[in-house]
Amino acid sequence: MSSGLMMIVTGPSGAGKTTVIDRVLAADNSIAFSVSHTTRPPRDGEVHGRDYYFVTDQDFDRMIKGAEFVEWANVHLHRYGTSRAEIDRLFSLGKDILVDVDYKGARAIRLAFQQARSIFILPPSLEEMRRRLSQRASEDQEALRVRLQRARLELAVAGEYDYNVVNRDLDAAVADVLAIFRAERLRAVRAAGLVRRLVAEAIEEAG
Q1: Would you state the pLDDT for residue 77?
Q2: C-alpha torsion 30→166→170→130, nearest 10
Q3: DSSP secondary-structure letter at 191?
Q4: CATH T-level topology, domain 6-206
Q5: Is this model's pTM higher than 0.85 or not?
Q6: Ranges of each domain in the chain
Q7: Which residues lie below 8 Å from residue 95, measured CB to CB, with a gap of 6+?
Q8: What was the pLDDT predicted at 1?
Q9: Torsion sign, CA atoms 55, 59, 61, 65
Q10: DSSP character for 48?
Q11: Residue 140: CB partners within 8 Å, gap ≥ 6?
Q12: What's the gap between Cα 113 and its chain centre?
């Protein structure tokens, strides 16, 4: 089992989750982003392999049949999935992993990786969340309606997560997430191997 930390980050559309994640990754290069596969088309500025692996429905079906996903789901009229190969690749590089998934994906990942921790990004208010969504030029009215409806469901499960971070102020929210990573790296269970070695050395010297 890898000694790397896996952090699941979830939040409703309009909470500013993507911006928080981008800032966290820029601030700490020991954290790597787990790039998901999706069947949706790329938005302006998105790059294959950096933001998502953009694949066809046929490719996605093939990966499902090959049990290549830790989790996958239909989200906002498209499919998204977290591949086992991507997680293994990042752990092999010695990275801590940040996984951006919805609440169903988070549940599946926690079952597969019991050492994973989780953060839910909250908007300061429903009004602010709605305002942020309305400002997206890429959203038509139907897509906006679907996202708002789903956001209400997602907010109801925030209590399942290890941490809740309110994105009222972007700098503060980013600092909170980075602090969570630092605290989780200091958990005693993550240093258990070192503690055992030190104890063994101490016993050997005493004997």
Answers
A1: 84
A2: 120
A3: G
A4: Rossmann fold (3.40.50)
A5: no
A6: 6-206
A7: 4, 30, 31, 32
A8: 43
A9: negative
A10: B
A11: none
A12: 13
Asked if residues 120 and 163 have their Cβ atoms less than 8 Å apart, the reply is yes
Positions in the chain short of pLDDT 50: 1
Q: For residue range 186-199, what is the model confidence (pLDDT) as tens digits?
A: 987 667 778 888 88
Provide the token pair at 189. 């269970």
Query: 118 to each of 7, 43, 62, 127, 146, how far by Cα in Å?
Result: 5, 27, 29, 25, 25
pLDDT digits (tens, 9 = 90+) for 9-50: 999 988 999 999 999 999 999 999 999 999 999 999 999 999
CB 37 within 8 A of CB 52: yes
In one-letter notation, the amino acid at residue 189 is V
List alpha helices for the chain, DSSP H. 17-27, 57-65, 84-92, 103-112, 126-134, 141-155, 170-185, 192-206
User: CA angle, corner 111, sides to 121 and 119, nearest 5?
Assistant: 15
Question: Are the beta carbons of 136 and 44 closer than 8 angstroms?
Answer: no
- Give the CA dihedral 8, 14, 18, 19, nearest 10 degrees: -130
Length of the chain: 207
